[in-house]
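Hi F.,

I've been meaning to write this up properly since the lab meeting, where we talked about keeping a consistent format for the predictions we share between groups. The idea is simple: the sequence comes first, exactly as it goes in, then the structure tokens exactly as they come out, then a line or two of notes. No screenshots and no reformatting. I'm using this chain as the first example so we have something concrete to point to.
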Amino acid sequence: MGGDLSTVTFALTVLATFVMAATAAIQAARQDFDPFGATVLAVVTAIGGGTLRDLLIGATPVFWLTDMTYLFTAVPVGLCTYFLSKQYDNTGGQRLQVLLYLDAIGLALFTLVGVQAAQNADLPVFSAIVLGCITGVAGGMFRDILCGLQPAILKQDLYASISLIGGAIFVGMLTQFNENISLIIAFLAMVFLRALVVYRNRASQTEQ
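Output, unedited:
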């Protein structure tokens, strides 16, 4: 992605990389991966969505091959989170809850980065929203598949729907506000909606 995108987009991508690498490391600890496996999972999860996005829009070499910031973020974050998670008391499924709430943040961040990349490539509005969704959900989908789990996108928890809604909100807000305000509104909307779904699912399981 390099110098084509704004400083804000670069910062969002690094933050999203950090968050998604952390979710992968937590899942790796839950699945009893070794440190190497956890690192691989963290990297694939952190760069998976952006890689697919770049391939779809023909932006090659893909972003992490031209800027090592993302790998230098994903690897240490993945390892540190893995070892911390292994020490964490998992009574009551706390690690899973942390994973899900972090994943909500990663979904929102990567969705917005994907929409911005699509706009930078002069794609139509609808295509930008769809590309944002692909960017947002792909990393988590790769993580779940590598862990032998059913991807969240295939469950009835509005994972992809929230990404599409967030992308649409961002695009819509741009007609009334500047980019930063639009980013904040769309980000908060996605995190709130996703966190609400996670909370309701947890409450439903508790009642059962």
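Notes:
The mean pLDDT is 90.
The CA atoms of residues 29 and 83 lie 8 Å apart.

If this format works for you, I'll send the rest the same way.

G.
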